[in-house]
Amino acid sequence: MSRPPTVLIVGTGAVGAFYGSRLHGPAQVSVTCRSNYAAVKAHGLQLQTHSFGDYHFQPHAVFPSIEAAAASGTDFDYIVVTTKALPDVTDDSLTIAPLVARGSSVVLIQNGVGVEDPHRKRFPATPILSAVTIVSAEQTTPGVVRQNKWTRISVGPYVRGPDDAQAGDEELARRSAESNKRFVELLKQGGIADAEEYDEKGLQLVRWHKLAINSSMNPSAVLSGGTGNARMALDAELRIHLRGCMDEIFATAPQVLGHAWPPKLASANAEKILKSTERNTAGLPSMLLDWNAGRPMELEVILGNPIRIARKKGIEMPRLQSLYALLKMASLRRTEEAAKSKAKL
User: Fold this and answer.
1) Of 222, 227, 247, which Cα lies nearest the Cα of 326?
2) Spatial CB neighbours of 260, under 8 Å, sequence gap ≥ 6
3) Are the C-beta atoms of residues 153 and 135 closer than 8 Å to each other?
4) Per-residue pLDDT reduced to its tens digit, 248-297
5) What pTM value is reported for the model?
């Protein structure tokens, strides 16, 4: 009898804990933790979910760091990265390098576009799986995670990249497709019925479609003084602005990827997204929460990367570029002011 696949969740916050708990059973799941390490090590994770009820998840092993996980001697089949993507702060590919073994696959459940490239370059022979989720979850206290709604996760291999840099590596493409299929099957076995398997271009279109929401709502919430999603969608001028940002992305993505929007994504246009957002009266974008807490924001993967990727193809994105320039400078100015205040103490 073959052993179950081994999975390591890197960054066991709400998203990592939720999907890790569903993978545990079909797979043997271990986790790395930071601020919640003591609680998870002592008591495991308590899940309060809309989709599966309340249950306890006891990981196979709980590590305080990637170094500790690497020192355990386990060759993990899947290294699942669920941390915020902050390439201007840390290189995730370098961080997880001690974990990547001959038979490993790296799974990136992160926002934005371009998150895969550093991993593809550092691990040229390793299957990289790119994943997009719409789950709504939060860690209410250390070791306690609440899933509010939704479970869908879309997963696809990342082999060639936007410029087809590794177009000739058919062996890597084959192994990546097999690993991708297996990972989606594990999710389905764990109860995630709407886990979706995509090819590379199809998954990138899913990434860019979610970007239409993140790149319009997130920075606009910060720059409008902390305005929530529903109020922005209901404000006449902001609605025009948000629709313009979304339409800019919807027009750019097919040109960048060389593929048209499939009917399922094409039907979810800007007006439908905005209409749905009107009902999200409690919604505050994650970037606004990070700004309010003084934490680094996902500026590069949500704004900077799409602008640069499009520019390489000769396409400008003026609406996103304006948001990027303004918010990047606002962030820099705040950092400078904080440093000045600290120096005075």
Assistant:
1) 222
2) 254, 266
3) yes
4) 999 999 999 999 999 999 999 999 999 999 988 876 899 999 999 999 99
5) 0.95
